[in-house]
Amino acid sequence: MSDIYSYNWNSPDGTEHSMADYKDQVLLIVNTASKCGLTPQYKELQQLHDQFADKGLTILGFPCNQFLSQESGTDEQISAFCELNYGVTFPLSTKIEVNGKNTHPLFGFLKEQAPGLLGTKKIKWNFNKFLISRDGTNITRFSPKTTPASMTDEITALLD
Prior knowledge:
Helix content is 26%, strand content 18%. By secondary structure, it is of the alpha+beta class.
């Protein structure tokens, strides 16, 4: 597939979503986990959502259980946890895989377009972040340790 808008994903209620629905939005796509030392990043992600959603930022969370089984719950449990503990209102997908033979196609595309440190295409941990321009052509990968709040300048530049 040639661009980010060619992919689909499913929300926990079973609804299929097309990335084409997010054309002209700045996207922040994150692989997440509920039992990780980085899980508090949900709070900052929600703060970014609150601050920039009306200016054109869409945050999409993709729960993944591939790193030390830190996302072992059901899709419904994950959604409830995020809402109850961090007030998450941005969209979450069903649980996916980001590495290996069952890699979600969207993450396969993102890893190809924005390799990690030293050109690696593998996702090494929870809370990798991909920031995508409104036209889908500029994709930047941020490490798990990059806090969402520290990305404000990059987000603002893409929104302007």
